Amino acid sequence: MTDTSRPKPLPVVTEESRPFWEGCKRGVFLLQYCEACQRYQFYPRLYCMHCGADSLRWEQASGRGVIYSYTVIHQNKSPEFVNETPYNVAIVQLEEGPRLMSNIVGAAPGELRVDLPVTVVFDAVSDTISVPRFRPI
To answer: What is the pLDDT of residues 65-74, one digit of tens each?
Structure first.
């Protein structure tokens, strides 16, 4: 049998997202915070998605949240994922307000549920990228 696996694609680091990915590499979960409307946002942008201001700064976030929604993938024929099933894709509602898509680690598919409390962990997937994933608290 031929090995059809290949490395999973890595996130593309842009100038807007660079502080986020550098924080992840250091094990620090950062979010953009708008000084004008005092709200957090994710994904990184040049302007506040809530009020349009450009007064954004990076702040360390708690890294805690709850599962807002999730699915368990049982089949994936893409070479990058064919040997990884089953795996989950979750939307995490962060304490600070934003939601982000990630994976839940350290839990069997049957243990996942909406509103399950989770906390961030960092998965060093390459020498330069650590991906935030979440585990149940």
So the answer is: 999 999 999 9
